Amino acid sequence: MDNLRIIEVKRSVFEENDKDAERLRKELKERGIFLLNLMSSPGSGKTTTLIKTINLLKDKLNIAVMEADIDSDTDAKKILEGTGVQTIQIHTGGMCHLDADMTRQGIRSLDLEKVDLVILENVGNLVCPAEFDTGASKNCMILSVPEGDDKPLKYPLMFSICDLVLINKTDVAPYFDFDFDKCEQYIKMRNKNAKILSICAKTGEGIDEFAMWLKEQVDIQKGGK
Amino acid sequence: MDNLRIIEVKRSVFEENDKDAERLRKELKERGIFLLNLMSSPGSGKTTTLIKTINLLKDKLNIAVMEADIDSDTDAKKILEGTGVQTIQIHTGGMCHLDADMTRQGIRSLDLEKVDLVILENVGNLVCPAEFDTGASKNCMILSVPEGDDKPLKYPLMFSICDLVLINKTDVAPYFDFDFDKCEQYIKMRNKNAKILSICAKTGEGIDEFAMWLKEQVDIQKGGK
Questions:
Q1: ipTM of the complex
Q2: Do B72 and A9 touch (CB under 8 A)?
Q3: What whole-number distance in Å separates Cα of residue A77 and Cα of residue B88?
Q4: In chain A, which residue's Cα lies nearest the Cα of B126?
Q5: FRET label pair with A51: which of A11, A194, A200, B8, CA 20 to 30 Å apart?
Q6: How close is the nearest chain A Cα to the Cα of B96, in Å?
Q7: Residue B4 domain-assigned?
Q8: Is B34 inside any structural domain?
Q9: Rounded to two decimals, what is the model's pTM?
Q10: pLDDT (tens digit per residue) in A12-49
Q11: pLDDT for A69-88, tens place per residue?
Q12: What is the pLDDT of residue B205?
């Protein structure tokens, strides 16, 4: 009974959140701001990926970062130290995801003058963040090799809502049973339009391709304003 | 506003769930059944750890396993093939955790005759499962080396509610910047009573210690019935 009640409440929240997310997406587009929502499991390499990517892009784009966590400010510190771009830490008060309103609260606390790209590093979680549209222009997720190639089977929604899936930590692939072809097949099963890139944030492999994709998306949105 | 509303609803559910979990814990204890709730991030090695552990214990204890996932039955199949013990797959219908009532539904579908130990492999998620008492006798979590030593800082509740933390995938420690001392210190910061064991489910290292701990807990509960 408890279970059913939770689902119903979530649904009614979803309807409002979806509308709110659409409003936020439209507002941001009108102001020329691209919002990337980056999701993954805990510890799959979001922060390291962002540092490398931002350093490739920060001369071409004015970037701001919002780090969402339940507690701690370690990731925001790392981004600030590693890139120097405007960074804030959002504490979710125990919440397992960000919705559009929480995302808006974060964005409002940024200095948006001249900002082209806001990157939201969502809470490390493959379930709940997928259920709440943040108002992002594009959704991207990281699956790291140590997590295993079967994750699209177990967490279908996350893979189905992402425009781009980054497969990270390819440097340790020899030590894990990770089948890249099988993984790609599972991802395409959930989302045939998803773009898939293999990267290694630690060594920098593939980061240029991710940066290029991101720059292109920002340009497309600006062009289509 | 959406955000606040969700938190309120969760709280009222929590109160009911806590009572329900206590009821379930008491019922199971009276029937001589120990329930272990095993949690972790996606892909940190719950299923492999369980297979190795169950094979060490299945001659001493009558074991049943409940695999919880949003979708797929890959883990239940692996457990069944790898151990031969009674196994069911619970699909959570998109839910990011199991509460006591969902756990009870799973337990009711098991043949409990002679069962000493039921192991629940919860949904791979470091946030939500920590918020819902399943009625388990003990909570255990796995943190895998590739996820990083800082997870107790970011996911405080999960570490604070676990009786045992298993640090898994120690075989790949040379390829990751994982500081075991620092990690232990962070875990103790969240929960000074947590027992910590280093294991490698792949090679079997440390699994005997985990099995011994689990057997001990089952015996203690039986003795205290």
A1: 0.88
A2: no
A3: 44
A4: A125
A5: A194
A6: 6
A7: no
A8: yes
A9: 0.91
A10: 355 689 999 999 999 999 999 999 999 999 999 999 99
A11: 888 888 999 999 999 999 99
A12: 98
Is residue A182 situated within a structural domain?
yes
Tokens read off for A167:
């497969």
- Inter-chain touch B172–A175, beta carbons under 8 Å: yes
3-state DSSP assignment of residue A68 = strand
Complete DSSP assignment for A73-139: -HHHHHHHHHH-SEEEEEE-TT-SS--HHHHHHHHHTS--TT--EEEEE--S-SSHHHHS----SEE
Residues of A in contact with B44 (CB under 8 A): 147
Give residue-wise pLDDT tens across range B184-203: 999 999 999 999 999 999 99
User: Could you tell me the CATH number of the domain that includes residue B110?
Assistant: 3.40.50.300
User: Which pLDDT value is given to residue A92?
Assistant: 84
The parts of chain B modelled with pLDDT lower than 70 are 1-15, 224-225
B167 DSSP β-pair partners: B143, B198
A224 belongs to a structural domain:
no
Sign of the Cα torsion A185, A159, A153, A199 reads positive
Domain coverage including residue B69:
19-219
- Which A residues 182-221 touch B at CB under 8 Å? none
- Binary contact (A124, B126; C-beta < 8 A): yes
**Alpha-helix runs per DSSP H in B58-138:** 74-83, 100-108, 128-131
- Please give the backbone phi and psi of residue B68, each rounded to the nearest 5 degrees, phi first: -105, 130
Angle at B165 between CA B162 and CA B167, to 5 degrees: 155
